């Protein structure tokens, strides 16, 4: 599922604070994947 879809679902279902927390976690996960993929 594309990140944009997950963010859209999260935004619709969560408060602003929860959405921001989710977005940060998703960003960190993507950065980790990029880092691992670059090895």
TrEMBL record:
<protein>
    <submittedName>
        <fullName>Uncharacterized protein</fullName>
    </submittedName>
</protein>
